[in-house]
């Protein structure tokens, strides 16, 4: 596998950050409002080390086995590196996330919430979680229907090891930016609804936008953008990320 070099990551990061700043400017937002979450999936531990060397301290991964392996390979030498799990999680793998992740962005069922809470209690930890929403309505996508989220927010409030901090979505993968923007708008409207109804949890974090659409996401209120390819380069093999 080709790993990303420090030079490549440095140059790509500078470019992504300046595009983020320009998008913030267009939207009349402060660049401090938007967090960049670099996504290292499919790259190996050498890329993780290079990312750390350029100052990255939080990396996104979508598969449990993969994050577990990279954690094992790098945790001792890079103890301040944190992991955000951003992909669908099976209940039987909740334990791993409870042990090593600092953030989980794909909460989409009560069963998983209960299991994470239990595992976190055993590990004496807590976890920042974002509720994943299927904003495009595509069958292939994970996440709750937007209509289900207010009731879900009430239910998960009982799990005190989960710090509910916002919403995450994957917009439709389409060159038609109008369609993509519609998905983002579903999210900002939902966020507003949760806030104004006083749903338990803080709903400040809106994780949406990836390499192809992060500028549009920022213009639509994203507070976290998850960027892989534009930082680390093209991934080898088929891209299965939902
Ligand atoms: C892979 C992945 C990303 C980043 O995708 P890029 O197009 O490479 O920027 C973002 N979010 C999730 C959930 C992913 O799996």
Automatic annotation (TrEMBL):
Cofactor(s) recorded in Swiss-Prot or TrEMBL: pyridoxal 5'-phosphate
Q: Which domain of life is it from?
A: Bacteria
Q: Read off the InterPro entries from this record.
A: Ala_racemase_N, PLP-binding_barrel, PyrdxlP_homeostasis
Q: Does the record's keyword annotation contain Zinc?
A: no
Looking at the record, the residues that make up the Alanine racemase N-terminal domain are 12-236
Positions where N6-(pyridoxal phosphate)lysine occurs in the chain: 41
Instruction: Write the record's keywords in alphabetical order, separated by commas.
Output: Pyridoxal phosphate
A GO molecular function annotation here is:
pyridoxal phosphate binding
Question: Which protein family is it in?
Answer: Belongs to the pyridoxal phosphate-binding protein YggS/PROSC family.
Q: What does this protein do?
A: Pyridoxal 5'-phosphate (PLP)-binding protein, which is involved in PLP homeostasis.
Q: What is this protein called?
A: Pyridoxal phosphate homeostasis protein
């Amino acid at each position: 596998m080709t790993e990303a070099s420090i030079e490549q990551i440095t140059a790509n990061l500078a470019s992504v950050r300046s595009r983020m700043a320009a998008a913030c400017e267009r939207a009349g937002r402060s660049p401090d409002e938007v967090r960049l979450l670099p996504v290292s999936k499919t790259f190996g531990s050498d890329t993780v080390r290079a990312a750390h060397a350029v100052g990255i301290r939080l990396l996104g991964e979508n598969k449990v086995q993969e994050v577990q392996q990279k954690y094992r390979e790098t945790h001792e030498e890079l103890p301040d590196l944190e992991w955000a799990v951003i992909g669908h999680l099976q209940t039987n793998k909740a334990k791993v996330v409870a042990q090593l992740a600092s953030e989980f962005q794909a909460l989409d069922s009560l069963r998983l919430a209960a299991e994470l809470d239990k595992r976190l209690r055993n590990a004496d930890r807590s976890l920042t979680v974002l509720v994943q929403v299927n904003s495009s309505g595509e069958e292939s996508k994970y996440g709750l229907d937007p209509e289900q989220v207010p009731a879900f927010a009430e239910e998960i409030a009982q799990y005190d090891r989960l710090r509910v901090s916002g919403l995450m979505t994957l917009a439709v993968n389409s060159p038609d930016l109008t369609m993509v923007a519609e998905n983002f708008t579903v999210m900002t409207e939902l966020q507003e609804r949760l806030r104004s109804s006083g749903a338990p949890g803080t709903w400040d974090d809106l994780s949406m936008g990836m390499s192809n659409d992060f500028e549009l996401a920022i213009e639509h209120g994203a507070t976290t953008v998850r960027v892989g390819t534009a930082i680390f380069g093209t991934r080898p093999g088929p891209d299965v990320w939902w």
